[in-house]
């Protein structure tokens, strides 16, 4: 007598970042669900290290990996598209490739995007650091600016070209400011001898009284001293309010002549048509119950940056929009859906805070571990930062490449990834036997 096979329920996951990927990998081999991932990119990437791609210390392949290779041999389908609209009444999602998918369970793990707080001047003139495309655009622009400065004859204009303002004193802002300051201090003079003594400065502007505001007082002080030692100009209790024509305006009336503005001052959850406005909370985040089920829906869940959950007693205002909550929510929801398929009750999500950390420049880092009970600084902080970031990369290929690049950078204070790559123009695509014009060549 044949055993009747029960059809697997279909889970559609929107977004393959920390939350989505951990959710999917913790369903590998389960007998109850098949999964389809929808993502606008065909690769996963490690968000906390995007700034190192932007500053030329890591190559994109060191922090990214293709989804199809990750899912090889697994009961996971992949669709490269963006979500356009959800139709909860018919359990259908409509995608940017004009296709549609039906689901039994929908998991929204689409993360967040840069929040410019409605400021159009900043949106048009600042670099964001949310994805690989952002990082490559910023890297190309920074190198191009150095080339422009190297032939500029006017000292004031040259100094403006070499001045960078970083808006936001959280981990991303502190880390990118430190990395840029290291480049200015140790690389600029050797590779661009014509820029020695040319001026320019790195500024970091933070609206709160401290750098790394959510971290401990020891980390506040250590970050300030480390950046100050790297000659970074630090302005606290101040915001960037306007940017245009190479001028950055601050809330205290200060005007900085700067060619480059890097925006690291906030994120907003990605929102989609079809989710009722009553189900959204602060920053467009979807309000969820203790099981990450979106308020008002029975089979739609949200995890990661796009979710806000008020049921965790230690976080009455919701969990921070960081990697660890996203990772833990992804794993927990996968376990809960397997529990439900087995007829068992779901368990409420409780976030375990493993701590916060940031690296400042080449040799210094701060770490507040285990709910800020343990502070590490200096070399120990650096080792903990390196270990956790290498361990968190998605596969061994990424780990080895990243560790190698970091070792080279640490020993030599240098990296060999400062090249501008431009895509070929349409009229030159496919001409494999003809020389590439100078404007499309590698600089």
Report what the structure shows.
The protein has 443 residues and is of the alpha/beta class. It has two domains: 9-40 and 81-114 and 268-341, FAD/NAD(P)-binding domain (3-Layer(bba) Sandwich), CATH 3.50.50; 120-265 and 363-412, FAD/NAD(P)-binding domain, CATH 3.50.50. It has twelve helices and 25 strands. It has a five-stranded parallel β-sheet, with no helix packed on it. Strands 11-18-12-13-14 form a five-stranded parallel β-sheet. Strands 6-7-8 form a three-stranded antiparallel β-sheet, with no helix packed on it. The longest helix has 20 residues, at 132-151. The radius of gyration is 23 Å and the shape is globular. The protein starts with 8 loop residues before the first strand and ends in a 31-residue tail after the last helix. Mean pLDDT is 88; it is low at 425-443.
Number of strands: 25
Figure out the total of helices. 12
* Rg calc: 23 Å
Quote the CATH topology of the largest domain.
FAD/NAD(P)-binding domain
The largest sheet is: 5 strands, parallel
> What ranges have pLDDT less than 50 throughout 5 or more consecutive residues?
425-443
- Look at the helices and sheets and give the structural class: alpha/beta
* CATH class type of the largest domain: Alpha Beta
User: Based on the structure, what is the oligomeric state of the protein chains?
Assistant: single chain
CATH 2nd-level architecture of the largest domain: 3-Layer(bba) Sandwich
Q: What is the end-to-end distance? A: 70 Å
């Amino acid at each position: 007598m044949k055993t009747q096979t029960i059809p697997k329920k279909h889970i559609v996951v929107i977004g393959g970042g920390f939350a989505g990927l951990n959710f999917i990998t913790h369903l590998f081999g389960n007998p109850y669900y098949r999964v389809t991932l929808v993502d606008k990119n065909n690769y996963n990437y490690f968000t906390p290290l995007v700034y190192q791609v932007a500053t030329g210390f890591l190559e994109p392949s060191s922090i990214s990996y293709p989804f199809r290779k990750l899912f090889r041999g697994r009961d996971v389908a992949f669709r490269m598209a963006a979500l356009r609209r959800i139709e909860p009444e018919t359990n259908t999602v409509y995608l940017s490739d004009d296709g549609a998918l039906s689901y039994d369970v929908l998991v929204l793990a689409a993360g967040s995007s840069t929040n410019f707080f409605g400021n159009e001047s900043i949106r048009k003139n600042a670099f964001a650091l949310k994805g690989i495309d952002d990082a490559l655009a910023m890297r190309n622009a920074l190198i191009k600016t150095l080339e422009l400065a190297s032939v500029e004859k006017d000292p004031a204009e040259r100094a403006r070209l070499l001045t960078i303002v970083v808006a936001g004193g959280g981990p991303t802002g502190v880390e990118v400011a430190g990395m840029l300051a290291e480049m200015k201090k140790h690389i600029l003079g050797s590779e661009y001898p014509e820029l020695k003594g040319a001026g320019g400065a790195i500024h970091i502007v933070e609206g709160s009284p401290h750098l790394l505001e959510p971290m401990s007082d020891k980390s506040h002080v250590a970050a300030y001293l480390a950046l100050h030692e790297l000659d970074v100009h630090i302005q606290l209790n101040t915001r960037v309010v306007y940017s245009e024509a190479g001028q950055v305006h601050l809330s205290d009336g200060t005007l900085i002549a700067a060619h480059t503005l890097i925006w690291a001052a906030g994120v907003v959850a990605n929102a989609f048509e079809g989710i009722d406005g009553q189900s959204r909370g602060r920053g467009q985040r979807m309000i969820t119950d203790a099981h990450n089920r979106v308020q008002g829906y029975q089979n739609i869940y949200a995890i990661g940056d796009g979710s806000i959950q008020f049921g965790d007693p230690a976080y009455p205002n919701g969990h921070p929009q960081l990697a660890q909550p996203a990772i833990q929510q992804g794993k927990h929801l996968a376990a809960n859906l397997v529990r439900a398929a087995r007829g068992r009750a779901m368990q409420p999500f409780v976030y375990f805070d493993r701590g916060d950390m940031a690296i400042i420049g080449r040799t210094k880092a701060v770490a507040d571990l285990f709910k800020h009970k343990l502070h590490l600084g200096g070399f120990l902080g650096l080792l903990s930062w390196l270990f956790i970031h290498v361990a968190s990369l998605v596969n061994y290929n990424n780990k080895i490449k990243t560790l190698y690049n970091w070792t080279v950078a640490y020993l030599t204070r240098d990296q060999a990834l400062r090249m501008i790559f431009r895509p070929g123009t349409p009229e030159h695509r496919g001409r494999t036997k003809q020389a590439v014009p100078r404007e499309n060549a590698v600089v």
